[in-house]
Amino acid sequence: MSKTLKITEIAAQTGLSISTVSRVLAGKANTSETARQRVLECARQKGVLQGIAAGRLLLNSLVIFAPQRAFDERLDVFYYRVIQGVGRALEPHDVRLRFCALEENDSDANLFLSKMNQPDSEAAILLGIDDPHIHDLAADLGKPCVLINCRDRKMRLSGIAPDHQLIGQYAASYLFDMGHKGVLTLLCLRRYTMELRLEGIRDAWDSRNLSFDETRHLITAQSFSAKESEALVSDYLANTPRPAWPSALLVGGDFMAAGAVSALQKAGLRVPQDMSVMSIDGFNLAEIHDVPLTSVHVPRDELGEEAVQLLQQRLMRPEAPVVNILLAGSLKARESVRRVRYGKGHSAVNSDGLYD
């Protein structure tokens, strides 16, 4: 807080005690919601909030809405770790964190409203909730609300997410830069976020004047499981002439990559000598079947911390423009991808996925 701040001035203008004003500006929980709002409104008018330390969170209670699977690490390790990131970001603050399970689509609007209308629901985070009706309700309620890994198509709520499209483009571009042209992509397109990654992969093909043909260059999975991916890759190898096999697989998750590598090894292929494998995930399996996994890390733990920071900005400046923040991924180059060199003694793959 600025040294020039006169807490007594806010106390006099709001009719509250100096100790109450001090507790509110310190982010303490032992004040009423009415008093908190009066103090914060007066502080905004005086330009005081800009002088408050950035690390101070000006609320006492936060509720996270997410799909049921997000609360079980065995069902969705990504969302589970995002929630843990929110919790870590709140540790220095006197904030009560509560949870409520909602479906991604066709969510229970009455449940959402009942939770949000509770006095101790001062702010909310929506994690992976795609239902536009819930977004409308959250915006109309007027309480601070931030989205994680979803977006409000009416642009009324701020959000933060991985830059899925750019991550997909970068991953495919890395394989092309390593000399691979016949890249086979294995993705689960369960949400629009995975569709964005596919769009980025298409962009990488287009930027190199290569033609992406879904019938030859894409395998679509129904889940992120290793078992299904192993079956899909095994079927592909069994039904595709060997000269048409790609030199690299780009896989949308570490567990999927584990299944893909298992299928390749059962077919007598070595990774990466005979076929490279790259993942878009990079947190769950550093190695697959003793092969260090090359991957693009999708931001995960950072999402929770940055969401709390964004929520703090909404508290301090509720009139600020709505923003959507996209976090970049990061490459972890290990040993599951080899460089393809052209010339005598080296095989290259043309744009049709055939060896030259």
UniProtKB/TrEMBL annotation:
<keyword id="KW-0238">DNA-binding</keyword>
<dbReference type="InterPro" id="IPR046335">
    <property type="entry name" value="LacI/GalR-like_sensor"/>
</dbReference>
<dbReference type="Pfam" id="PF13377">
    <property type="entry name" value="Peripla_BP_3"/>
</dbReference>
<protein>
    <submittedName>
        <fullName>LacI family DNA-binding transcriptional regulator</fullName>
    </submittedName>
</protein>
<dbReference type="InterPro" id="IPR000843">
    <property type="entry name" value="HTH_LacI"/>
</dbReference>
<dbReference type="GO" id="GO:0003677">
    <property type="term" value="F:DNA binding"/>
</dbReference>
<keyword id="KW-0678">Repressor</keyword>
<feature type="domain" description="HTH lacI-type">
    <location>
        <begin position="5"/>
        <end position="59"/>
    </location>
</feature>
<dbReference type="Pfam" id="PF00356">
    <property type="entry name" value="LacI"/>
</dbReference>
